[in-house]
Amino acid sequence: MKEFLCTDRDFKEIASLVYSACGIVLGEHKREMVYSRLARRIRERKLTDFKAYLEYLNSHKDQEFDAFINAITTNLTSFFREIHHFEFIKSELVPALLKANKNSKRVRIWSAGCSTGEEPYSLAMTLNNAFPSNWDVKILATDLDSNVLAKAQKGIYTAANVNGLDDVQLKRWFLKSKDGENYKVKDRLKESISFKRLNLLQDWPMKGSFDLILCRNVVIYFDKETKDQLFKRYANILNEQGYLFLGHSESMGKEHTQFKNLGKTMYQKGQNARRV
């Protein structure tokens, strides 16, 4: 018998709240995950069951709603995850931008759903010394979850977290703790990154356009209508030849003719471009 009662009605209400807030679809197969994550909140608030928690959430939204969303959202990432994307950036994107942006000397990249920061830091390592020193290269890193965003900003990782990095990268970009258990990102790697909390389904405060957007392993949780809306918004904020990278299990429907498929979940913006 479980510690807290969670009725079908409770689960449906939770799923509805999460979908309305951030577009994530919680099917029946997510019920155990929802239970385990929210049970912690129920214990912390010393409540009796999920119904009581939902009542508390409704009456204390300012204090509890962020914690509620943080508990539900999934955050799994690693340095240089899906390495082919970073190889493409180094071999194809950088040379293209050196030509296309030679007048503005400006590069903007958005890590949308940056989680605990491994993705934007991997981007910063990849772009290091890729552009002349007088170029303005910036990475925007956003996430809905304020907890993982705080960890990303601190840039402190365990030895297990940085296990995939080689000794040269570790020595160049990280400070090792005396006990060898933690690695802290050096300030000079943080200089090009701005961390901001952002709900992708709400208004975006960014005014400028981007050369590359990484939205990897995020849209997998959205329904088709939400995905379609998001892809259109990405197209609108990308430069004319801008790129969009999705996660390994994600794809874009053929109806999105504003993008062409480059393979390996990489897409390039182009007016009525034919997919390859």
UniProtKB/TrEMBL annotation:
Cited PANTHER family: CHEMOTAXIS PROTEIN METHYLTRANSFERASE
SMART domains according to UniProt: MeTrc
Originating species: Pseudoalteromonas arctica
Pfam families membership: CheR, CheR_N
Superkingdom of the source species: Bacteria
Top EC class for this record: transferase
Record protein name field: Chemotaxis protein methyltransferase
EC number: 2.1.1.80
Keywords: Methyltransferase, S-adenosyl-L-methionine, Transferase
Known function: Methylation of the membrane-bound methyl-accepting chemotaxis proteins (MCP) to form gamma-glutamyl methyl ester residues in MCP.
Keyword Nucleotide-binding in record: no
Reactions listed under catalytic activity: L-glutamyl-[protein] + S-adenosyl-L-methionine = [protein]-L-glutamate 5-O-methyl ester + S-adenosyl-L-homocysteine
Domain CheR-type methyltransferase: 1-272
